[in-house]
Specification:
Radius of gyration: 19 Å
Largest sheet: 6 strands, antiparallel, barrel
Number of helices: 5
CATH topology of the largest domain: Elongation Factor Tu (Ef-tu), domain 3
Strand order of the largest sheet: 1-2-5-4-3-6
Helix content: 10-25%
Mean pLDDT: 92
Strand content: 35-45%
Low-confidence stretches: none
CATH architecture of the largest domain: Beta Barrel
Oligomer: single chain
Number of domains: 3
Distance between the termini: 40 Å
């Protein structure tokens, strides 16, 4: 479990295929890793939860499986690439961002990136299957960064980066057409599945009357 608050920027120092060729092992260097992570620890890399298979002072090696390669931008990792890093949340930590699992839902495409005063605005074209979970002023995780959604339309959504986020992440430096990892609010996905169990397959949607009928709302 993570919060979407990036702790450090790491650099890919090594990329090698796994023996059967369906996955890869990556090595990352960063000041965050000055104290070696324990074997089996979780580390979010550009928003993707990976497992540490080896580490020492200043670096950690992690493995990327075929499912992760298919659903995230990690399939295109190369030596020298800068990535966001966040260690797993401790039970005693404050939840400063929002609940992030590190299980990326899909890939978005950056269509616009521009400064607006002190802020930096991004517009991300999003797969329709994910867009229904994204709401104005709700939370979204982009490459492991917890952000607030500014606006949503039929193609995607926009967010703004404050100066601190600009300085401590690589998002403001991404160019038009760049791919980004997206993780939507997990609460929205669970609510949808729970409600769907009470809605007939022939239904055209959820109305207030249907919510009242199944005990999810009260009032006239």
């Amino acid at each position: 479990m993570f919060t979407g608050l990036v702790e450090d920027l790491g650099k890919i120092s090594e990329v090698s295929p796994l023996p059967r060729g369906s996955g890869q092992r990556i090595t990352i260097t960063a000041s965050l890793l000055a104290e070696p992570l324990p074997l089996g620890a979780s580390l979010a890399v550009d928003g993707v939860c990976l497992t540490v298979v080896s580490s020492d002072r200043g670096w950690a090696a992690l493995e990327v499986g075929p499912e992760t390669r298919a659903r995230t931008t990690l399939a295109t990792l190369s030596i020298g690439r800068v990535v966001h890093l966040e260690r797993a949340l401790r039970v005693s930590d404050r939840l400063g961002g929002h609940i992030v699992t590190g299980h990326v839902d899909g890939i978005g495409q950056l269509e616009a990136s521009q400064r607006r005063g002190d802020s930096w605005d991004l517009y991300v074209v999003t797969p329709p299957s994910l867009l229904r979970y994204i709401v104005e002023k709700g939370a979204i995780c982009i490459d492991g960064v917890s952000l607030t959604v500014n606006q949503v339309d039929g193609r995607g959504f926009s967010v703004s980066l404050v100066p601190h986020t600009q300085a401590h992440t690589h998002l403001a430096g991404k160019v038009k057409g760049s791919s980004v990892n997206l993780e939507v609010d997990i609460v929205a996905k669970h609510v949808e599945k729970l409600i769907a169990a009470y809605v007939p397959a022939s239904s055209t949607g959820i109305s207030f009357d249907k919510l009242k009928e199944f005990g999810f709302a009260r009032g006239d």
